[in-house]
Write a structure and sequence with these properties.
By secondary structure, the chain is of the alpha/beta class. It has one domain: Glycerol-3-phosphate (1)-acyltransferase (3-Layer(aba) Sandwich). 47% of the residues lie in helices and 14% in strands. It contains eight helices and seven strands; from the N terminus they run αααββαβαβαβαββα. A seven-stranded mixed beta sheet has the order 1-7-6-2-5-3-4, with helices on both faces. Helix 1 packs antiparallel against helix 3, helix 2 packs antiparallel against helix 3 and helix 3 crosses helix 4. The model has no long low-confidence stretch (mean pLDDT 90).
């Protein structure tokens, strides 16, 4: 586990360093040809995330790819078991999408640059005003055709019970009139959080992409019930497939 962890972190930072010139080129492209810039970002981020999973010894089984909408932007809503949920979602679940992520990730050099390229949104959980801005900006992004991923528990469960889902993600999707795609992540915490001294170790992870839920024309009561409805879809899947 120790050697795997050292190799993993070495690759993590080396890739960010090596791709600095590419990031600069993407910044240039974003002003000249945004679509080409997005393709570059998707290519490099997906490859990086896949290698991070491979080096960690993660074996990911994904079902339900056919449930991802193909002709519209959408909001992926997943439970959050561990840090590896992020590379799993970036590389294994459809096309690369931006994340609605906690503000702390914005402070990591290199990571924040690529997250900006990905059209990620950063949540300041201590500010009500910032939370309102996330809903406005997220709604705008979905309407412009940029899909998003969010972990509405707000923190890692580390394999414990699925925590309550915060309502912000569902307001973003409903205000944009875009579908929500529930995703179950089962076992990602075993790659890191479950191991002694926070070492990385191989593990099997199951990912299930459920059928999309249309939010267009939902009434206020339906929107209010959405967080718990999606949470129960994920909980039921975890319970049906528990060891």
């Amino acid at each position: 586990m120790v050697l795997r962890t050292i190799v993993w972190f070495a690759y993590f930072w080396a890739y960010l360093l090596i791709t600095l010139p590419i990031s600069g080129y993407i910044t240039f492209l974003e002003n000249k040809n945004p679509q080409k810039a997005d393709k570059f970002v998707a290519h490099f981020v997906k490859n990086w995330a896949r290698r991070l999973i491979h080096l960690a010894g993660g074996k990911i089984t994904v079902t339900g790819q056919e449930n991802l909408p193909k002709d519209t932007a959408y909001m992926v809503v997943a439970n959050h078991q561990g840090y590896f949920d992020i590379p799993i979602m970036l590389s294994m679940v459809g096309d690369v999408r931006g994340l609605v992520a906690k503000q702390e990730l914005h402070r990591i050099p290199g990571v924040r640059t690529w997250m900006r390229h990905l059209h990620c949104l950063f949540v300041n959980r201590s500010s009500i005003r910032a939370g309102a801005e996330i809903i406005i900006n997220g709604t705008k992004m979905l309407k412009e055709g940029h899909s998003l991923t969010i972990f509405p528990e707000g923190t890692r469960s580390r394999g414990g019970p699925v925590k309550a889902f915060k309502a912000g993600a569902f307001r973003i999707a409903s205000q944009a009139g875009k579908p929500i795609v529930p995703v179950t992540i089962d076992g990602s915490y075993k790659l890191l959080e479950a191991n002694p001294h926070f070492f990385i170790n191989g593990a099997n992870v199951r990912v299930t992409i459920h059928k999309p839920i249309e939010t267009k024309d939902m009434n206020r009561d339906e929107i209010h019930k959405l967080p718990e409805k999606v949470r129960q879809i994920i909980i039921n899947d975890l319970e049906q497939n528990c060891d």
